[in-house]
Design brief:
Largest sheet: 5 strands, antiparallel
Helix content: 25-40%
Structural class: alpha+beta
C-alpha cells in the first residue's frame, strides 16, 4: 500500500482480578502425607489464570480488559449458525492480510466444541482437513496452522465469533503487571485460615 501511515494511541489499563476465598485447614495440612503449600499455590495460579484468560478472550473493555474476540473485526460470516464448510475456513484465512499469515504465532483459536465440528470437515476428495499432532506437546493443525483450544471462546451460535485466526502476537497486546499479592486472613473463619490472591492485567 502506498498510502500514508496513520499512527494512533491507546492506553492499555491494568485491571485487578481476584480469586474467590480459599479456605485452608491447618489440621488437614499437618495430618496430610503430602505438602499442601504447593497445592495452594497451584489453586491460586489456576484461578488467576482462568479468570485472566476469560478477560483477555471476551472482556468487554468496560472496567475490564478488552478481549481479543470483542475487539476483533469480522473476517467472514458463515452461512449456517451451527456448522462450517471447507470454503468458509478458507474465506476466514484469506480475510487476513498475507503479511500477517506467515509468522510463528499465526494460529486458529476456538472452543473445544468448535474443534469437534472442524475435525469432521473434509476436502473435495474426502480427506479430513484436521491433522492430529504426532509429537507430544505440539498442537494439532488445520490447513497447516496450529489450533489453540480456549474454553472461553464463544460456541457456534447466531451472532457469535466462534473461530479466531491471525497473528495473536502482533494483533493483540497484553499488559501483564508482574507480581501476585496474596491476602491471608486467620481471624474471620477460625479454625480455618482464608487466602485469596490479586493480580493486575490488561489487554487490547
Amino acid at each position: 500500500d502506498s498510502g500514508d501511515i496513520a499512527l494512533g494511541k491507546t492506553t492499555l489499563l491494568a485491571y485487578a482480578l481476584a480469586t474467590p476465598w480459599i479456605k485452608w485447614s491447618f489440621e488437614l495440612a499437618q495430618d496430610s502425607a503430602f505438602g499442601f503449600e504447593p497445592l495452594l499455590g497451584k489453586l491460586i495460579g489456576e484461578r488467576i489464570g482462568r479468570k485472566g484468560n476469560a478477560w483477555l478472550t471476551t472482556g468487554s473493555g468496560n472496567n475490564e480488559p478488552l478481549g481479543f474476540v470483542t475487539g476483533a473485526p469480522v473476517g467472514h460470516v458463515a452461512a449456517a449458525t451451527d456448522a462450517l464448510t471447507f470454503d468458509e475456513i478458507l474465506d476466514l484465512e484469506h480475510s487476513v492480510d498475507p503479511a500477517y499469515r506467515g509468522g510463528p504465532k499465526v494460529r486458529y483459536q476456538m472452543h473445544d466444541q468448535s474443534v469437534k465440528a472442524l475435525r469432521k470437515l473434509k476436502d473435495g476428495n474426502g480427506n479430513y482437513l484436521w491433522r492430529e499432532a504426532f509429537v507430544a506437546g505440539q498442537p494439532s493443525t488445520l490447513l497447516g496452522y496450529p489450533v489453540a483450544i480456549d474454553e472461553n471462546m464463544p460456541g457456534m451460535t447466531t451472532g457469535a465469533l466462534p473461530i479466531m485466526f491471525g497473528d495473536f502476537r502482533r494483533g493483540y497486546l497484553i499488559n501483564d503487571r508482574l507480581g501476585t499479592s496474596v491476602l491471608r486472613d486467620p481471624f474471620t473463619n477460625k479454625p480455618f485460615v482464608n487466602f485469596y490472591a490479586r493480580k493486575r492485567v490488561g489487554g487490547g
